[in-house]
Design brief:
Blueprint (H helix, E strand, L loop, with lengths): L1 H11 L3 H14 L4 H13 L3 H18 L2 H17 L3 H14 L6 H14 L29 H6 L17 E6 L3 E7 L9 E4 L4 E7 L4 E7 L12 E4 L4 E6 L28 H5 L3 H4 L14 H10 L8 H11 L3 H13 L9 H4 L18
Antiparallel strand pairs: 1-2, 2-7, 3-4, 4-5, 6-7
Helix pairs in contact: 1-2, 1-3, 2-3, 3-4, 3-5, 4-5, 5-6, 6-7, 11-13
Length: 382
């Protein structure tokens, strides 16, 4: 939504009145978007309109629970707790912060707000109304429907030709899925026509993905589960949307630039003590090869060399190799080699002055590779 993007930009630029207007426009086009209400609540909070901010936060909470999306619930409840604090409803704020803690105890600013509320509660007397919890976990209000659902019968009668044809839901056994990736994200498409927007449930975990929704008219439920994913994701930055033809899920890679070979992996995820992952540590943690690779012995005057690092630096060079067919052959050979073979090639080629090229790390890894010049020539040291 263009209005929502403008609202975010205005919020970042501290143009709060402008942000409020843009988020209001965005809500008019999609009155069920949780993040639009959170965005407008944030803008209202910055201009100290706490009652308006609380109203938007509570709508966001109701919508988030309707969508059953954990991250949205946490964000909406956290924003709600802040408004309760500013309205001096300290016991209510403390109660909602406990909900936030249960949802995500690692929320960065949660300790700060918990301390602020605790301090205020210490300053007021035992019988003060501000010490009483009056708030409900989920507000008693009807969550707004999408703008498309607000069309009146009068509007329909006035323009019958413009009425859209009903979408025939895809049978459960005919639903297909596909996926593709970019440097930062993995996109999964569930190709299902007529998936009910308010009943699609998508659960993100750092190692798994789960999708489910009822198939209307068939009395069945569609389920799609991937556990574990090929590599970890960031659930807080992952999202989904439902269109008339598909459910589109965008997964944010925890380690950007990692190429997924499949959607589902065969690694072991965190669980039993001592379990290890089949995916290399540098993929899971985002640490580069240089951070953890061992340094091997060498007779070079410049000291020990990290052949993992040299191999990684060579892979980062994306420029096309210019030259003859031999250069292209070696490029192809190198790109298709394993990391261990690449280390062996780098070490043997450099230490031998370009006269030896070996892919056997067990042979060259623990010794200095001696130059082997062609017959009639001799190696020279520079």
């Amino acid at each position: 939504m263009d209005a929502a993007r403008k609202g975010e930009a205005a919020l970042s630029a501290s143009n709060y009145d402008e942000a409020i207007q843009h988020f209001t426009d965005a809500i008019k086009s999609n009155s069920a978007a949780v993040k639009y209400y959170i965005g407008r609540a944030t803008a209202y909070q910055r201009v100290k309109k706490y009652a308006e901010a609380l109203a938007d936060s509570e709508i966001a909470v109701a919508l988030a629970y309707k969508r059953a999306t954990r991250e949205l619930i946490k964000d909406a409840q956290f924003r709600r707790a802040q408004q309760l604090f500013f309205l001096e409803r300290y016991a209510d704020a403390e109660h909602i912060l406990e909900i936030v803690k249960r949802l995500d105890e690692k929320e960065k600013t949660l300790p700060i707000w918990t301390a602020k509320v605790a301090k205020k509660l210490q300053e007021i007397s035992e019988g003060d109304e501000k010490r009483k919890v009056t708030v409900k976990d989920v507000p008693d209000l009807e969550a707004p429907s999408t703008a498309q659902d607000t069309t009146t019968a009068e509007d329909t009668e006035a323009s019958p030709a413009a009425a859209p044809k009903p979408v025939v839901p895809t049978p459960a056994n005919k639903i297909k899925d596909d996926w593709y990736q970019s440097n930062d994200t993995v996109t999964v498409n569930i190709l299902a026509k007529g998936a009910p927007k308010d009943k699609v449930r998508v659960d993100f975990d750092k190692d798994s993905l789960s999708v489910s929704f009822p198939v209307e008219g068939a009395g069945a439920e569609y389920n799609f589960n991937v556990d574990p994913l090929y590599a970890p994701i960031d659930p807080t930055e992952s999202k989904f949307r439902v269109t008339s033809n598909k459910v589109e899920i965008t997964l944010r890679k925890a380690s950007q630039g990692v190429k997924w070979k499949t959607l589902e992996g065969d690694r072991m995820v965190d669980g039993a003590e001592g379990s290890k992952s089949a995916i290399p540590e540098h993929i899971l943690t985002g640490k580069s090869v240089q951070d953890s690779a061992p340094v091997y012995p060498t007779s070079s005057k410049s000291g020990a060399k990290n052949w993992d690092k040299l191999a990684a630096e060579d892979l980062d060079d994306k420029d096309e190799i210019e030259g003859d067919e031999t250069s292209h052959f070696f490029k192809k050979l190198y790109s298709g080699a394993t990391s261990e073979q690449q280390r062996a090639m780098m070490k043997s080629y450099q230490e031998s002055g370009g006269t030896v090229l070996s892919t056997d790390w067990s042979n060259v890894g623990s010794k200095t590779v001696v130059p082997e010049p062609p017959e009639g020539m001799e190696a020279r040291k520079y």
